[in-house]
Amino acid sequence: MQPVIFLAQLIGLSLLIVSISMLARREAMIALVESMMQNPPLLFVLGIIQLLGGLAIVLTQDASSGATLPLIVTMIGWWLMVRAGLLMFLSQDALWALFDAVELEKYYYASNTVGIVLGAYLTYAGFASALGLGTIPIG
Predict the structure, then answer these.
(1) Largest Cα–Cα distance in the chain?
(2) Which one, of 12, 129, 113, lies nearest residue 67 by Cα?
C-alpha cells in the first residue's frame, strides 16, 4: 500500500470520528479546549506530537505530482507543523489572543463540518484507491 493511501485512510477516519464526536458534545469540547489552554506544558507536548505527525506526513509525500490526494495530505501535514510551531513558540498570552481571534464558539459547527467533509473525502479516496474501486489519481 502506498503511503498516501494509508495516510488518507488514517487521517480521513480520524477526522470523521473526532469531528462527529465534537459535534455530539459541543459544550464539553469547548470546556475541554479552554481547560487545555490553561496548561502550557500540555500545549507544548501537543505541539511536539503535532510536529512529529506533520513531519511524518510531509516527508513521506510527493505533492509535486499534481494529484489531488497527495496535495491534500501534504497540506494537512504542513498545517500540523504550523499549529505545532504556534503551540511550541507562542507565549500563553499570544495563544489566548489567537484562541479568542478564532472565535471557536461562533464557528464551531462550520469548522467541524469542514472536518467531516474533508474526512469523508480522504476516507473515500483512501479506501477506493486501496480497493481499486475508483479512479482517484494518487500520483
Answers:
(1) 49
(2) 129
Residue 101 corresponds to which cell in the numbers above?
481571534
| Predicted pLDDT of residue 124 | 94
72-76 long-range contacts (CB < 8 A, ≥24 apart) are 72/118, 72/121, 72/122, 73/4, 73/7, 73/8, 73/11, 73/122, 76/11
Handedness of CA 47, 50, 52, 55 (dihedral sign): negative
pLDDT beneath 70: ranges in the chain: 1, 134-139
CA atoms in the 13 A half-sphere facing the CB of 101: 6
Residue 139 and residue 137: Cα distance in Å, rounded? Answer: 6
pTM of this structure: 0.87
Grid cell of 61 as nine digits: 509525500
Number of C-beta neighbours around residue 53 at 10 A: 18
